[in-house]
Specification:
By secondary structure, this protein is an alpha+beta fold. Helices cover 24% and strands 48% of the residues. It is elongated and about 75 Å long.
C-alpha cells in the first residue's frame, strides 16, 4: 500500500514537471515565432502569438500544431501601385493545422480565418477629394467618410453649384464590398442631387464611387467580407496554405 502511494506521488510530481516543461517550451516557441514574423513581415512592433493545444511537446513531435493565433496591431499593406501603403489596424488570424519543416525554418497553415479593420481616415486617401467637375457649373469632391448605419458608409461630398458653395456637404449612403479578394469597393446606393442640375451618372460616380486595393497581407491571406463600422470598415480575412515563416 505504501509503495502504491509512493508511485502515485512520483507520478503526480513527474506529471507536474512535464506540464511545467511543456509550458516553458510553448512560451519559448511563441516568442521565436513572434520574432521571426516581426523580421519577415518588417513589422514595427512584435506581434502577439499564441500556440494552443496541449501537450505542446507531443504536437511538436508529430510535426504539426493544432492552432496558432496571431495578432498584429498595425500592418502596412500594399495598394497595388508600389507607391503608397495602407495601414491595417488590429489584424488577427487564427491558423489551423500548422505544419513545419524539420529545422523549423518554415511553417504553413492549412486554413486561416481572421479579422482586421481600416479606419475611414485611411480609406479616404483613395477617394477623389479634389474638386472635380461633374456637370454644367457643378464641381464636387469627397471630404469625409463615416458610419452610415446598417453596414453602410456615409460619404460626405462638398459641392459648388454655379460658383456658390453649398452650405452643407451632401451625404451619400454607399454599400461596401470585397472584389477579387484584394479590393474594397465603395458604391453609392443612390446618386446625390446638386442644386437640381441634371448630370451624367458616370461623371457623378467618378466622385462618389471608389476602390481601395489591399494586397501583401501576411502569408498571402485574402479579404473575404467587409462591413462599415463605427470608426472604419471591418474586414474578414481568409486563406489556405498560409505561409507563416520561411
Amino acid at each position: 500500500m505504501r509503495a502504491l502511494r509512493i508511485l502515485l506521488i512520483i507520478a503526480v510530481v513527474l506529471g507536474g514537471i512535464f506540464v511545467i516543461v511543456d509550458r516553458l517550451a510553448v512560451n519559448f516557441a511563441e516568442g521565436e515565432v513572434a520574432d521571426r514574423l516581426k523580421s519577415t513581415e518588417n513589422l514595427s512592433t512584435t506581434p502577439d502569438v499564441s500556440i494552443n493545444g496541449f501537450p505542446f511537446l507531443t504536437q511538436i513531435a508529430g510535426g504539426s500544431l493544432d492552432e496558432v493565433r496571431i495578432g498584429i496591431q498595425e500592418y502596412e499593406a500594399g495598394t497595388g501601385d508600389g507607391k503608397q501603403n495602407i495601414r491595417i489596424e488590429d489584424l488577427r488570424a487564427d491558423m489551423k493545422g500548422v505544419e513545419f519543416s524539420g529545422d523549423f525554418s518554415s511553417a504553413t497553415a492549412a486554413d486561416a480565418t481572421g479579422t482586421a479593420s481600416v479606419t475611414y481616415v485611411e480609406l479616404l486617401k483613395t477617394a477623389k477629394s479634389e474638386s472635380t467637375q461633374v456637370g454644367p457649373g457643378v464641381t464636387a469632391g469627397v471630404i469625409g467618410l463615416s458610419d452610415g448605419g446598417n453596414g453602410k458608409i456615409k460619404v460626405a461630398v462638398e459641392a459648388t453649384v454655379l460658383g456658390t458653395e453649398l452650405p452643407e456637404p451632401v451625404s451619400v449612403l454607399s454599400s461596401v464590398t470585397v472584389v477579387d479578394g484584394d479590393t474594397v469597393r465603395v458604391h453609392a446606393d443612390a446618386l446625390p442631387a446638386f442644386g437640381g442640375i441634371e448630370m451624367a451618372e458616370a461623371r457623378v460616380r467618378e466622385i462618389t464611387d471608389f476602390e481601395q486595393k489591399i494586397d501583401g497581407l501576411p502569408g498571402g491571406i485574402k479579404l473575404d467580407k467587409v462591413e462599415a463600422g463605427k470608426s472604419g470598415v471591418e474586414i474578414t480575412v481568409r486563406g489556405s496554405d498560409v505561409r507563416l515563416a520561411g
